[in-house]
């Protein structure tokens, strides 16, 4: 009796309909085949073995949808014949599956190659693709116009210095700027106040020089140093009377000891009267330039420049919400001493060692002084500028130079703004009548 194996997980059936077992002997004689197909003989010895494997309940669901069975009488050269199940939908052939797999592999390879290229470029590996288009122009500052913010900063920074002064209890750090070719430097008086010995002046290239204090004026908050160095670059001075609200400005200095710092803003107000100083100490009065350029501790004494790079003010005071002065920071309100006033004080200190103070020849005080209606004069100096213009004690000055007055400090600060000998218009009230006068301000050497 001939035996036939069932292989590869295929479940063949015996002719009686029972499942075939592995190595089960096959019956002798002709084996019935499938129903006759057109042009053929059912169950003929020349027909292939027929398998019902596709409908077999023990069939592996992962088995292919076509099986090949060798005829029992066939030899090794017999041609296999596929037998398919007409009840199942046609599945993609192996050729289509292979083609899809090949295309997927090619796409994955292309994507991997692209990612690898970009990663290589990101890690500094040279690529073959040139990104962007060259401008053909030289890079850097060569393309920045001299009147641009960067051009102004480049021109001004060599003239800006950091000032360090040993006060005995610590080191005060501020800013300054070179005012002349022979080494005079302007800074704030409160930067060098209480200093012991000479100051250390650091230039923007990192070099240092010793700066001796030539003189200082606490009331105007201006001090002048002299550095022992040649070849310094002085600033260009502007006119603080020619600026307007909205003009662009740059503030230079060493805020929080960060040297060579430049911030930008605009002139946000003019003639903002400032009274600064410690209670019981020296008070400072000036009609300041207000700016929103960021100014912090350490900017004191540095230049405030206009859009053309000309110095129009000396950074001096900031407004802050902090109670402790050491924790004060910028909130968008900073104030600079007008350069016309600072330059005049500097010239006095260089020429004579001390500054002249501009006066009107009257003292404020008495009932109503500092009311919203103006500033009342308490006394008027005989032979002084106010008396020469016809003003008397008890008169209430409403405006000075067209600027309304509300506080006594307003009158002092605005008078300090002008140089001695300046003629200013005064509007005042005597009783119920308003009157005007022209006052020629004078100098008082302290």
From TrEMBL:
Family label: Belongs to the peptidase S1C family.
Gene3D superfamilies named in the record: 2.30.42.10, Trypsin-like serine proteases
A Pfam short name: PDZ_2
Biological-process GO terms, alphabetical: proteolysis
SUPFAM superfamilies: PDZ domain-like, Trypsin-like serine proteases
Keyword list, A-Z: Hydrolase, Membrane, Protease, Transmembrane, Transmembrane helix
Species annotation: Micromonospora zhanjiangensis
Protein name according to UniProt: S1C family serine protease
